[in-house]
Amino acid sequence: MDKLIDLTDGIDLQILSYARHPSMEKSEKILNARVKKSLLMAEQYPEFRSNYLVCAERSQKSKTFRVDKNHIEDVEQSALEAITFAEKQLQDNRFLLGNTYTLADVIWTVVHSRLDLLGYSKWLDKDTFPQISSYYLRMQHRKNYSLAQI
Asked: In whole angstroms, how far apart are CA 78 and each of 43, 44, 83, 108?
């Protein structure tokens, strides 16, 4: 389970999101606001200062990396490797770790939904990743998926 969760943590959804944002000008404003808010929160909550500073730094880097084609390609390659691993995990399994729905499934469902939203449909396609495609469809039909209003 740890490996599956670590793989999702390694997918830079922030970069993928801002790289695919329909309006680069808008994403720049969003990132500026995130940096400002993170720095403000770091001041207000000194016990979490280091966490907020990490968030601010990540958003600041995203401003540059979201338009860096090479960096985006690296992020996409890393995501593709994680999805390939998940595809293998689903071989002969209903869920990522067998026949029991786990935290790994919750997290991967969120990741798949985000990738779908961002237009990475080739990574969810039944011809390219048949196990992922079937799995994601099953996750979308779960009651909790509907309740989350993804």
From this structure: 34, 35, 9, 15
Same domain for 31 and 86? no
**Global pTM value:** 0.78
Examine residue 16 and state whether it is found in any structural domain, yes or no.
Answer: no
| Cα–Cα dist 9/7, whole Å | 5
Range of the domain at 58: 22-65
Nearest to 83 by CA among 31, 133, 33: 133
Half-sphere exposure at residue 25, Cβ-oriented, CA atoms within 13 angstroms: 0
pLDDT in tens, 103-138: 999 999 999 999 998 889 899 999 999 999 999 999
Residue type, 75: V
**Euclidean distance between the first and the last CA atom of the chain, given in angstroms as a whole number:** 24
Per-residue DSSP letter, 108: H
CB atoms under 10 Å from CB of 62, counted, come to: 22
| Domain membership flag for residue 99 | yes
Q: Nearest to residue 109, comparing CAs of 99, 100, 96? A: 96
In angstroms, what CA-CA distances link 121 with 58, 104, 132?
Answer: 26, 21, 11
